[in-house]
Amino acid sequence: MKPRILLAMLAALAFSPLALAQGTVDCTKSRNPERCEARQKARAACHDKRGAERRRCVQDQMPPPDCGKSMNPGHCKSLQTARDACKDKIGVAHRQCMEAQPGLKP
């Protein structure tokens, strides 16, 4: 009986979302391979952080997107400006700051 429980626990751990999220992504199949590789490097650099601190770290490590490749370059530039203006805020304050930025739709 104990081996079954152990096997079930190992299977659950192996297929948990955390284990799957830590897997490598094939960036060659990505729409933007350079950005995909940059995100992988940012995640690796921030692997020891959790929650909002991790999101902030990954965002800080990422290079800004190339708005020239965007489907809507004007919105992309407005979004980057808003992110820069609100980067020191977290949670509800960040959302409210982003919503208050000109050029972005609520």
List the helices and strands and how they pair.
Elements lengths: L1 H13 L2 H5 L11 H13 L5 H11 L11 H14 L5 H9 L6
Short description:
This protein has 106 residues and is an all-alpha fold.
Q: Classify the secondary structure makeup into a structural class.
A: mainly alpha
Terminal-residue CA separation = 56 Å
Overall mean pLDDT stands at: 81
Overall number of domains: 2
Q: Summarize the amount of helix as a percent range.
A: 55-70%
The H/E string reads: HHHHHH
Assembly state here?
Answer: single chain
Shape assignment = globular
- As a percent range, the share of strand residues is under 5%
Low-confidence stretches: 16-20
* Rg, alpha carbons: 19 Å
Number of H/I helices: 6
β-strand number: 0
- How can the largest sheet be summarized? none
